[in-house]
Amino acid sequence: MHNMVQKSFSAVLVLGLTACANGDMAEGGADGATEIRVLTVGGTRIAMQALQAQYEAMSGNSLNISFNNPLLIEDKMVDEEFDVIVAANNSVIVAHDGDMLEPGTQRKLSRTGIGVTIREGAAPPDISTPEAFRATLQNAQSIALSNPSNSNGSGIHTIKILGYAGVYDEVMAKATIQGLGDGKALIAAGERDLGLYNISEATAPGVTYHGPVPDLWQLYTNYDVAIFADSEVKTAAADYIAFLASPAAQANWNAGGIDLITE
pLDDT tens digit string along 122-142? Predict the structure, then answer.
């Protein structure tokens, strides 16, 4: 994964300082700990769970993280109450346009690209160059893909990548469109040669992440973060966002198949 240099997070920090100055800190229980409710997607699970343990140990606050199918995010943020959202950029924009976010808190956070998933123990195919990647797709007998109708999922990026590589028709003729879990189960059982999924979701029992799509054709799902306007723990939420966007969090983002983005 490509690492980037971290810059400042003034908007988030100013929010925290303003909240302190205004005294609007109905935050924390008797022990001083604050629960922060986080709305996010399943693609962040590995990284966000590791970051949860890291942040809770550092801050003393607790996180209540709701991992969801991207298709459910917009309904969730209307029907339930959360303090922080970490989701694909277009979902966060929906929240922004609906006046659901605290002004000045939305920022780019992280991204994940598309990678190749293979069965554990299988001979690893060559995907080291665009030409080798194309040949691997052409030589595969069967390929698992996720549904391209989900605008926030890996499928829509995968379809574009196949077009960039000039193998869309050839691959689609032998591809299986499956839900993420079902597709990886087929690979684990040896019923599909490989799959193309978000790198952050490319592992499962019986399958392993082999490597990324070559840079020439790579596409990313970009995750934004923001604080909900009706959150009652904005200071703690701002502290949590500052942590997520900090160098201290980078190793766990990367271990979860996600790059940290800086502005």
Answer: 999 999 999 999 999 999 999
